[in-house]
Each structure stands twice: as structure tokens, then as C-alpha cells.
Amino acid sequence: MRVLLAGGGTAGHTSPLLATADALVRRDPSTEVTALGTPRGLENRVVPAAGYPLELVPPVPLSRKLDADLLRTPARLRATVKAALEVLDRVRPDVVVGFGGYVSVPAYLAARRRRLPIVVHEGNAKPGLANRLGARFTHHVATSFPGTELRHGVYIGLPVRRMISTLDRGDLREVARAHFGLDAEAPTLLVTGGSQGARRLNQAVLGAAAAFASAGVQVLHVVGPNNDVPAPGSTPPYVVERYVDRMDLAYAAADAVLCRAGANTVTEVSGVGLPAIYVPLPIGNGEQALNAAPVVDAGGGLLVADETLTPEWVADHVPALLTDPRRLVAMSKAAADVIPLDADERLVDMILAAVTA
Ligand SMILES: CC(=O)N[C@H]1[C@@H](OP(=O)(O)OP(=O)(O)OC[C@H]2O[C@@H](n3ccc(=O)[nH]c3=O)[C@H](O)[C@@H]2O)O[C@H](CO)[C@@H](O)[C@@H]1O
């Protein structure tokens, strides 16, 4: 079987694409997977690094409205659909899977033209434009969060990397804390602003460093690849990292997380049973608050507005949560029960069903 996976831009789209590629090959090692992206996205680095071929089409700038203009295929869209048709004719996939984002629009339109089966996977709680278009062309549509409104949508979750879906935090805790130079015993907060980091989170948590130290709470603070922040020297440790490749170790070291609410972050953090304080990014189409909502509603996390997150708020609320083991255990269980971590396997089932339908 040959499968074309269309998606790219940020880690938000490339991560589920790669997790799905790996699951397809695990299921049947003879499966040929090709990725489709655009020239500027993260896919240009991470897809070849993962060992999959990458085909490129020119990007299409989209207006936010799914309107008649788009379907009347203006010139640039026509050019990129033509490029996608050339890829289909060369790669000859049995099925085209889209993860949303700009590259999925030409992928869906070209697949429809060649009458190929289409599978749509929506990563965020609020569907984007590309996937709303794709869902018009197929019945094989998957969502990452319960309650997402998308035509034909079936809730399966978001495919995540195996090192996270198979993680046993208890087994790895000691190794993980040693890896980051953390104390073996102290309650531990992980801070992450997603793949880019988040200045607001960085300032608020660093500004409360003294409150963590006096409560005996240590911090593993991932500040983002472009942020240079000195670690406050304190006991127990306050460790600063710019980017962590082994997020399984970061999750295993932690007792709770303070984070943005990107779709992968919510799935990984709650799926591995970590209590979380979610501070949704207040831009975009509002998807981050919606991503965290099912976990928060179930009692697995707290939702804090960006403007509420000051050093004072952090000092008043977060050390107290970290030193309340009973509350942490209840939140952990509630979080793990809402979010499944087998979406990669379920999406493979859906892809196979689309091919044989
Ligand atoms: C600013 C922006 O456009 N944000 C969007 C972007 O977020 P963003 O690109 O931040 O994506 P997510 O929060 O969904 O995922 C971050 C991913 O990066 C990994 N990670 C993070 C830090 C680190 O040091 N190491 C590491 O490996 C995490 O484990 C996770 O897998 O895509 C998401 C999914 O479409 C959307 O919900 C977000 O709204």
C-alpha cells in the first residue's frame, strides 16, 4: 500500500503526521509512506530526519472564510493543485490523508480529482478551514477532542510519538530527574510553552522562583528555542532548558505541568496523567482554550487566562498545588481517563477502511 500524508508548518501538524507514518509502517512494514508539505515548513527538517520521502507544493494563502472564492480556484490555488496532481501521478498513492493546514487544501482537491480515497484528521478542537473543506469530500474524518464539530467526524484522539504513548512515568522518574540534574524527591513542576516557548509563561514563573524555593518545589522550565534565560540559583533546583528532545523524560520528571494548550501538548500531558495548569494562547481562532476544555471539565486541569498569569498568581496558587499530593492524584486520574493515547493505531484502522471501502 502507498499512502500520501499531507501536513506541515509547525510541530502541531508534523508531529501527528510522523506518528501516523510510524504506525502505518509498524502495522505493515511494506507500506510506502510519502509526506506532502510546502517549502518553508518544519516538515523540511523533520520528515527527512525521520526517514520518509517529502514532496513539496507551493503554499496557498487562504482567507479565513471557507467561501465560494476558494472553490472557484483562483490562479495560485490552481497552480498548487496542479503541482499536487503531478505528485499523485508520480507517487500513485492508494489513499491521501490530510492533517489540515495550507498543504492539505491542494491535497484534498487533487485527490478528489483523481477519485482517490481521502482521510481527514483534525488536530485542534476547533477545525481549520482546510479540514472543513476536506470533510466535504469523504466520510473518513477523525477528530482529536470529544465534541469537535466537523462533518462525519469521529473522535479518536491525536496521534503522538511512541516514546510518549508508551511512557510509564513512575518507572522513568528517577532516571528522568537525574537526567535534568533535579532532586530525586522534591515535588516537581514542568513549564512548557509548546514548540516555540511562551514569553508570558516564562516571565510569570521565573518571577515566582522564590516562592517555589521556599515551598521546597523544584522547577524544570523549558523556555523555548529562541529564548535565552538564566536559571535562578536556588535549592531545590530551578533548571532552565531551551528545548527538550526527550519530552518523555520531562513528563516523567514532573508531578504537574504549567503549559500552553496546543493540541499535542494537551494530548500528551493529560494522556500521560499529568495534572496541568493550562494557559491558552489568546490568539488564533481560539482553539487552544477549546483544546483544554474536555480535560478541565473532567477535573484533570485548571484553565487560567493569559492576563491572569502574573508572578503573584503563580506564587499564590502553584506551589500550593504541587505540595498537595491528594489533589494531584485526583487530577492525574481525571486527566488520563479523558484523553486516549492510541490514536495512531485508530487512524491506521481508518486509513485501511478508506482504502478497502
Ligand atoms: C502558536 C501556534 O500556532 N500554536 C499552535 C501550534 O502549537 P505548537 O507548535 O506549540 O504545538 P503543540 O503545543 O500542539 O505541540 C508542541 C509539541 O512540541 C513538543 N515539544 C515542545 C517543547 C520542547 O522543548 N520539546 C518538544 O518536543 C511537545 O512534546 C509537543 O509534541 O500547533 C498546535 C496544533 O495544531 C495548535 O493547537 C497551537 O495553537
UniProtKB/TrEMBL annotation:
<comment type="pathway">
    <text>Cell wall biogenesis; peptidoglycan biosynthesis.</text>
</comment>
<dbReference type="GO" id="GO:0005975">
    <property type="term" value="P:carbohydrate metabolic process"/>
</dbReference>
<dbReference type="GO" id="GO:0005886">
    <property type="term" value="C:plasma membrane"/>
</dbReference>
<keyword id="KW-0961">Cell wall biogenesis/degradation</keyword>
<feature type="binding site">
    <location>
        <position position="161"/>
    </location>
    <ligand>
        <name>UDP-N-acetyl-alpha-D-glucosamine</name>
    </ligand>
</feature>
<feature type="binding site">
    <location>
        <begin position="10"/>
        <end position="12"/>
    </location>
    <ligand>
        <name>UDP-N-acetyl-alpha-D-glucosamine</name>
    </ligand>
</feature>
<dbReference type="InterPro" id="IPR007235">
    <property type="entry name" value="Glyco_trans_28_C"/>
</dbReference>
<dbReference type="Pfam" id="PF03033">
    <property type="entry name" value="Glyco_transf_28"/>
</dbReference>
<protein>
    <recommendedName>
        <fullName>UDP-N-acetylglucosamine--N-acetylmuramyl-(pentapeptide) pyrophosphoryl-undecaprenol N-acetylglucosamine transferase</fullName>
        <ecNumber>2.4.1.227</ecNumber>
    </recommendedName>
</protein>
<dbReference type="GO" id="GO:0071555">
    <property type="term" value="P:cell wall organization"/>
</dbReference>
<dbReference type="GO" id="GO:0051991">
    <property type="term" value="F:UDP-N-acetyl-D-glucosamine:N-acetylmuramoyl-L-alanyl-D-glutamyl-meso-2,6-diaminopimelyl-D-alanyl-D-alanine-diphosphoundecaprenol 4-beta-N-acetylglucosaminlytransferase activity"/>
</dbReference>
<feature type="binding site">
    <location>
        <position position="195"/>
    </location>
    <ligand>
        <name>UDP-N-acetyl-alpha-D-glucosamine</name>
    </ligand>
</feature>
<keyword id="KW-0808">Transferase</keyword>
<feature type="binding site">
    <location>
        <position position="124"/>
    </location>
    <ligand>
        <name>UDP-N-acetyl-alpha-D-glucosamine</name>
    </ligand>
</feature>
<dbReference type="GO" id="GO:0050511">
    <property type="term" value="F:undecaprenyldiphospho-muramoylpentapeptide beta-N-acetylglucosaminyltransferase activity"/>
</dbReference>
<keyword id="KW-0131">Cell cycle</keyword>
<keyword id="KW-0472">Membrane</keyword>
<keyword id="KW-1003">Cell membrane</keyword>
<keyword id="KW-0328">Glycosyltransferase</keyword>
<dbReference type="GO" id="GO:0009252">
    <property type="term" value="P:peptidoglycan biosynthetic process"/>
</dbReference>
<comment type="function">
    <text>Cell wall formation. Catalyzes the transfer of a GlcNAc subunit on undecaprenyl-pyrophosphoryl-MurNAc-pentapeptide (lipid intermediate I) to form undecaprenyl-pyrophosphoryl-MurNAc-(pentapeptide)GlcNAc (lipid intermediate II).</text>
</comment>
<keyword id="KW-0132">Cell division</keyword>
<dbReference type="InterPro" id="IPR006009">
    <property type="entry name" value="GlcNAc_MurG"/>
</dbReference>
<feature type="domain" description="Glycosyltransferase family 28 N-terminal">
    <location>
        <begin position="3"/>
        <end position="142"/>
    </location>
</feature>
<comment type="similarity">
    <text>Belongs to the glycosyltransferase 28 family. MurG subfamily.</text>
</comment>
<feature type="domain" description="Glycosyl transferase family 28 C-terminal">
    <location>
        <begin position="188"/>
        <end position="336"/>
    </location>
</feature>
<dbReference type="GO" id="GO:0051301">
    <property type="term" value="P:cell division"/>
</dbReference>
<dbReference type="GO" id="GO:0008360">
    <property type="term" value="P:regulation of cell shape"/>
</dbReference>
<dbReference type="Pfam" id="PF04101">
    <property type="entry name" value="Glyco_tran_28_C"/>
</dbReference>
<keyword id="KW-0133">Cell shape</keyword>
<feature type="binding site">
    <location>
        <position position="288"/>
    </location>
    <ligand>
        <name>UDP-N-acetyl-alpha-D-glucosamine</name>
    </ligand>
</feature>
<keyword id="KW-0573">Peptidoglycan synthesis</keyword>
<dbReference type="InterPro" id="IPR004276">
    <property type="entry name" value="GlycoTrans_28_N"/>
</dbReference>
